[in-house]
Amino acid sequence: MNQSQVNGDLSQPAHGQRRPSVLLFDVNETLSDMAPLAGRFSDVGAVPQLARTWFAGLLRDGFALTVNGVNPDFATLAREQLRQALAGTTLEMELDAAVEHIMGGFAELQCHPDVVDGVRALSEMGLRLVTLTNGATSVAQRLLGDASIADRFDRMLSVQQAEAWKPDARAYRYALEECGVEPAEAMLVAAHPWDTDGARRAGLTAAWINRESRTYPSYFLAPDLEARSLTHLASLLR
Question: What does pTM read for this prediction?
Fold first, then answer.
């Protein structure tokens, strides 16, 4: 790291850092704007703030199962977490219907405003773009297809075909093997510090997309780059 990065400025690459040949993109929250799911909670009679709590619990339990050697199905776990999260709430519909109404929101999520231009800019730089999600590849395909940028991606990968969820090192190794590259040739792009930390520990470089001007947790390995958006990331890598 250069001195600016030691002092907390991650906006510039380290001196001598080689530009990656492959960018691995997290999907949920990194590419997709999940904020509209809060409205789905309101529709069923729950408080919209429950959306964040539910998703955090979903990730927590997915990570816990991964530690114990289980590779859970994202949608199955999400539904069960919803039943737990909605328990005790007076709903506007039956519980199963409420769960399906919320889950149906995934099929309507759109990309963050910066994603289309950012993906196009990164693709035009000759970088190979690949998704690596803890969810299903079908979600990424629909999301990027609706945004007319699916053709910019070389591969769409999911940990369903790996042995473990991210941030387990096996998830990143799976993607590297599928892409035929060494760790140093790949950069993970994610909005989640736990994901960038996991990638760094697996030998990849990492870019943290910090759209909300948050402070990066000091207990995680720092990302190689911090960007406000995918278009900003493209300018840093150019």
Answer: 0.91
